[in-house]
Design goal:
257 residues, mainly beta, Cathepsin D, subunit A, domain 1, two-stranded antiparallel ribbon, disordered C terminus, binds 2-acetamido-2-deoxy-beta-D-glucopyranose, Pepsin-like_dom, Aspartic_peptidase_A1, PEPTIDASE_A1
């Protein structure tokens, strides 16, 4: 019995493929003082590490965009943020291309680099990321309560392979599937749910999943046919309705302020 047990452990260690579960925090996206009318203001953040040794950053896992960015030394924000220090990393690769990133709520200018990125037990190497340098004065991205954004969208809208693509090409996930479990914001902040790389976790859902093709040809986020939609007899959308598969929309809360 003992021998068998050891063998099984060894096999799974060698293959290196596991379901990787990252705890998410449900947090208000912007600092105190800006009241939002409802819970649209809450978003889900988790922690990743960049560099060797790892430097920790809180990020939104955002299926609606495809780039990874974290603040660089020159980044200006209203709250102290973690800033990436390339001089302290032995795995830093300087690329130097200028990059502009645009979100529904803001934009930033940065520099492209590559690094080792650790997400839970998964380590990927030579992953492109953007060292954020600046955003326009007054931009919402200066006020956010997390450090950066990890885009989980497709390569179609990114100039470089995404983190998720690298996880798959480096064979780091059990299945080419990730799932996000978002818990209601009434639950404790550090129990906002989980993002699971490599598959599904049975206790996080009831019933069967329905699988739909995503349209990833347009701009981010990916969309899928949805509807028709009516509320209390009022038609919201009757034909050609689409919904966005977007886990981290920054646009809505900012528009509603
Ligand atoms: C930087 O990355 C881009 C995108 O992959 C690539 O085209 C370019 O050659 C790279 N430049 C350097 C100096 O590594
Ligand atoms: C979530 O928030 C709690 C309390 O602020 C903190 O201790 C914990 O490290 C956070 N977890 C993540 C994954 O950011």
């Amino acid at each position: 019995m003992m021998k068998l047990y050891v063998l099984v452990l060894l096999l799974s260690a060698v293959s290196g493929k596991a379901l990787v579960r990252i705890t998410l925090n449900s947090t208000e996206i912007i600092p105190d003082g800006v009241r939002l009318t409802n819970d649209d203001g809450r978003r889900y953040i988790g922690t990743i590490e960049l560099g060797t040794p790892g430097q920790a950053f809180t990020v939104i896992f955002d299926s609606g965009s495809s780039d990874l960015w974290v603040p660089g030394p020159k980044w200006v924000s209203t709250k102290p943020r973690q800033k990436f220090d390339s001089s302290k990393s032995s795995s830093f690769y300087y690329n130097g291309s200028d990059v502009n990133l645009y979100y529904g709520s803001g934009s930033l200018t940065g520099i492209l680099h590559a690094e080792t990125v650790k997400i839970g037990d998964i380590t990927i190497t030579n992953q492109f990321f953007v060292e954020a340098v600046r955003s326009p004065i007054g931009d919402r991205l200066r006020e956010i309560r997390f450090d950066g954004i990890l885009g989980l969208g497709t390569d179609a809208v990114s100039r470089t392979p995404t983190v998720w693509t690298t996880m798959m090409t480096e064979g780091k996930v059990e299945k080419n599937m990730y799932s996000i479990w978002l818990r209601p914001s009434s639950i404790e902040a550090d129990d906002g749910g989980e993002i699971v790389f490599g598959g599904l976790v049975a206790e996080q859902f009831i019933g069967e999943h329905t699988y739909l093709d995503l349209d990833t040809t347009g701009s981010a986020p990916p969309i899928f046919p949805f509807g028709p939609i009516s509320v209390d007899g009022l038609d919201i959308c009757t034909a050609n309705c689409y919904a966005a598969a977007d886990s981290g929309p920054l646009t809505l809360p900012f528009v509603s302020i």
